[in-house]
Amino acid sequence: MTQMKVALLTEVFPRNMGYLENFLPKYLVRLGINVHVITMDLPPYYQMKEKEFKETYGGFADSGDLIPGAVETIDGFTLHVLRHKKVLGYMQMAGLRKKLAAIRPDIVQTTAAIGWIPLQAALAKPFLDFKLFTGNHYHASVFPLAQKKLSPWSPELLRCRLTRTLPGRLISMFTEKCYAIASDCADVATRFFGVPRSKVSVCPLGVDIDLFNPISTELDRQNRLSLRQRFGFSESDIVCIYTGRFSEDKNPLLLAKAVAQLASTGHPYRGLFVGNGVQAQAIQSSAGCTIHSFVPVRELGDFYRASDIGVWPTQESLSMQDAAACGLPIVANHTMNAPERLDGNGVAYKLNDLEDLVQVLLELRDPMTRKRLGACGARKMADDFSWESIAMRRVRDYEAALDTKQREEEGLASERKSLGKGRTVSDSRSTAVAELGNRKMTDP
């Protein structure tokens, strides 16, 4: 059997981060798949205003090394960089069909269900004969229409149907499946992006267990002690960690306020904030709180293992799963639409309620409670959320789609063969009749 070839199309490729485009290809390669990642010469979060981007990600997530035309090998997969082209305010991959024609993939996987890239892939499919899979990572918490009750004739909803639902339905005509990373993402895909419910499959994002795992060796324990000493934390301190953007929508400042309130009343709570953004100064000035700039994903596990509780006050974050895999209990808000990230391994608090967050953190003061929740989370992430298991699930789906394609091709070939035989017999009969007629006409 020939080696399956998969092309993953992604708007951006942030080298130092831990997103799907970084880890899924790595684990597909381990399963024997020939993987090509096609991206553009854009930084992550390129939609942000320049000042905000530099303040948050400057020096960490720049895209200066993504040169159009570049090809390189990373973790066994091949990365291709294409030039971006802005059309009607959104980004297209310049030369995508030509690149796909050169690679000749069996499977094309996009990370979005709508937009230029999945549309480009859908329009290329009839000419290049691959199977197309899409995805949706939009949680209800970051898609405003999903949080509103609107009449069917609302201008806002009609605009969405025209610009998202109709193009999404067109794309879905060419697809096998759309992978929604959570149940609310599935709802957004079907209600707003035109994806038929029958084609939606809920498949969560994963955790790289190579990087994110609980303390298990003497080196892990030494690294924990060393990092805590570096930040001025004692072993008896209860360190609450947040990683990501320090933005208003993520609102890590709420955690900083909770830590400051606990510390000012004599409780041994401390805050470790890894990232950057507009709330940085206010967080840094909060009692008991320490800031560290973004670190590459390969170093992030040490920061989780040096901490005691993971806290993400507002929006869902893949970092929750990474922290849980390292054995931390997780605190998140009660409206979060990805309950699998909290069930059995964390506690919910009332969204943006400072006093309730303080009380929830106090509930986790007992080290045995933290240990029990953390152990449950680490097992769950390893068993159900590893990128290895998710890659295996994707490969099964890809193989099933290719098997269907093969059966269809074999059936078509058989039908053509049968038709060919029918024509041969008919032609033979016609020839025989004609010859007999000729003989009769020439007989004396």
Give an overview in words.
- The chain has 444 residues and is an alpha/beta fold.
- 45% of the residues lie in helices and 18% in strands.
- It has helices at 20-30, 50-57, 96-103, 116-128, 155-172, 183-192, 218-231, 253-264, 280-284, 297-305, 319-325, 354-363, 367-384, 387-442, and strands at residues 5-9, 34-40, 71-74, 77-82, 84-87, 90-93, 107-110, 131-136, 175-180, 200-202, 238-245, 269-276, 289-292, 309-312, 330-333, 346-349.
- An 8-stranded mixed beta sheet has the order 3-4-2-1-7-8-9-10, sandwiched between helices.
- The chain starts with a strand and ends with a helix.
- Residues 428-444 have low confidence and may be disordered.
- Whole-number mean pLDDT: 91
Q: Any idea what the CATH superfamily of the largest domain is called?
A: Glycogen Phosphorylase B
C-alpha geometry:
globular
Biggest β-sheet, characterized? 8 strands, mixed
Q: What is the distance, rounded to the nearest whole angstrom, between the alpha carbons of the first and last residues? A: 66 Å
Supply the number of helical segments: 14
- CATH class of the largest domain equals Alpha Beta
Q: Detail the poorly predicted runs.
A: 428-444
The number of distinct β-strands equals 16
What is the alpha-carbon Rg in Å?
28 Å
Give, in order, the helices and strands.
Answer: EHEHEEEEHEHEHEHEHEHEHEHEHEEHHH
- How much of the residues is beta strand, in percent? 15-25%
| Count of spatially separate domains | 2
Q: Helix/strand-derived class? A: alpha/beta
Helix content: 40-55%
Instruction: Specify the CATH architecture of the largest domain.
Output: 3-Layer(aba) Sandwich
* The CATH topology of the largest domain: Rossmann fold
**Strands in their spatial order, largest beta sheet:** 3-4-2-1-7-8-9-10
